[in-house]
Amino acid sequence: MKRRAFLVAGAATVGTAFLPKPFAVAAATGDKKGVMLMNRIGPSASHLYISNLDGSNERPLLGNATFDYHAGFSANGQSVVFTSERRGDGDSSIYRARIDGTGLQPLAIGRAVHDAGVLSPDGTKLAFVSTREATPGDHKTHIWVLDLRTNKLKNLTNAPNVAGDPTMPDGHFRPSWSPDGQWIAFSSDRNTPWRGHDDGRGWEHTQELSIYVIRPDGTGFRKIATKEGYCLGSPKWSPDGRRVVFYEITTEGTWGAHRPDYIGRVESQIVSVDVATGARVEHTSGPGLKVSPQFVNATEIGYLVKGGAAEGLAYTSGTIPAVKRPWVRSPVWSPDGTSVIYDKVGWSVRPLDTPLYSWDPDWDYRFCDVFPVLSNQGRLAYTEKQLGHSSIVTMNPDGTDQRVVFDSYGRGLDPSLVARGLAGAFRPAWSPDGEWIAFGLGGWFFMRATSTAVVARVRADGSEWEVLTDGTSHAGFPSYSPDGKLLVYRVWGAENKGLRILDLETGATRVLTTEYDNLPDWSPDGKLILFTRKMDAVNFDVCTIRPDGTGLRVLTGGSGANEGHAVWNPDGRILYNSGMYGFREEAALYDNTFQPYGQIFLMNADGSGKKMLTDSIWEDSMPIYLPNKVLSR
């Protein structure tokens, strides 16, 4: 092992070009125990607009707009239902309003995802997607019907003849009423296996959907459209009720459809089927990611071109001019075919400490950048990824004494990759005495296949840093032993993988594991090391092992989904991220996400007592609890 020390000008001048924005974790409200910081990958804003068919006369739909999306017209065109997070950032609920934006009324609210609401043709029932418990412990997305006259709820997709294999994704999405109100079409990935992207080699999952119909009383369930190796999504009925239109994309393409680096290169088509015979018609051809189709009238189908130079609204016949409009999503056309409602989403940086909806009455939830960690002395560190430099920032939790103690620019990394969050200083780890911060430095995510990375550490005041590994293996994600003498970290590569333990006094390194293991975290009592293991081509689980290499225990598993990003809570429990309840939305409709359905969980050190701490439509991860006693120091 080669170690090199680098002296810098001093803490006062470190990273002056990238000082963090003011950030103070406010004390928890009321009699709560404190604050849980967490990261969320999702849009920071979404508003509903309405315009004429040609894009003219665009205006906000609602006068009291907050965070609103996924609208749907009533059959008479006089009202609209939509999803809103006005109860809190991350809490999706369904509301109804008149088409002029007045008469706001909640229809489906509560501590779960409520989304994609559509009114029956007679206006008496609401079909929607919800993760509310269908049975105890089942938080997957199901299709529900709410009778608006009696408030009676019915779950259509958990009956024995409909429910899929619970170890598989088993989600149900985007309900649509037939014009006569006798049927509901929807998409589902029921009974499809968990698949990794890149032909099964990637961490993030792809999605295979088929189109089904069911009566609102739960009878008549059947599949009406499927295609091997493809995902069929967002069904809508023709005005005469004979056909259902949907988008069709390869299963692999559902990953690229929500990745910022692939969205403009993924292709899909608009297809419809005869409900009675299954006869197909392909209404489009050629390049472009085409989603959200709808019959505008008996002969015309509108859809969204997502991403690329032509992003906006388009039509299959070509007689209605396309409307180029960036970051438009989820269009829905009025029953008379004269107007269209759509989302306009924004991706400005969420300010740190932004309040998020809390599913736990004992804790406030707030937004933070990635990999937050608290020192034994009560100082916060994190990777400042969202500002485009992936550097190490420290501060007191009250916002004072903020410092960029390690600036990732000028460290031999590709500046364009640093700006995109694909390279930099990731996952800080405090030494027990608070004098050092260890981290990984290099290229990350898919860049690890072509980039190098080393474990390094920097003085807490930013005055000195050193590289701790020799660069022959892609190394990162370090964690200190409680006595500060050892570092555990992971190495990645086909010939050299697993966890390693570095003795900081002697420089000796020993092998702890030789599987594809990642994100190690030393327990506060020093007895266990927590980490994520790649169990097979598409499944990752949270594990623990003793520092001497004995006592391996797999703490998660059985769902087929990914679990990871695990960290120790100071009370000896484990916080982690899981997709065990499947997707919350059709994968191709997400933007700028990696694992769009991840939720935060808490469990005991032996894997028992698993509890879900978030239930949003977005990707939530990287939590840390800050009790009031820490915030008041």
Describe the structure concisely.
With 633 residues, the protein is an all-beta fold. The chain is built from four helices and 51 strands.
Question: How would you describe the overall organization of this protein?
Answer:
This protein is mainly beta and 633 residues long. Helices cover 3% and strands 43% of the residues. The chain is built from 4 helices and 51 strands. Strands 1-38-37-36-35 form a 5-stranded antiparallel beta sheet. A 4-stranded mixed beta sheet has the order 29-30-2-51. Strands 4-3-28-27 form a 4-stranded antiparallel beta sheet, with no helix packed on it. The longest helix has 5 residues. The protein is elongated, with a radius of gyration of 25 Å. The protein starts with a strand and ends with a helix.
Biggest sheet overview? 5 strands, antiparallel
Stretches where pLDDT is under 50 for at least 5 consecutive residues are: 1-22
Number of beta strands: 51
Strand percentage lies at 35-45%
Please give the alpha-carbon distance between the first and last residues: 40 Å
Number of helices: 4
Mean pLDDT: 92
**Given the helix and strand composition, which structural class is it?**
mainly beta
The residue fraction in helices comes out at under 10%
Shape: elongated
- Across the major sheet, the strand order is 1-38-37-36-35
What oligomerization state is this entry in? Answer: single chain
Radius of gyration, whole Å: 25 Å
Keywords: Signal
Pfam family, one: PD40
InterPro entries: 6-blade_b-propeller_TolB-like, WD40
Signal peptide: 1-26
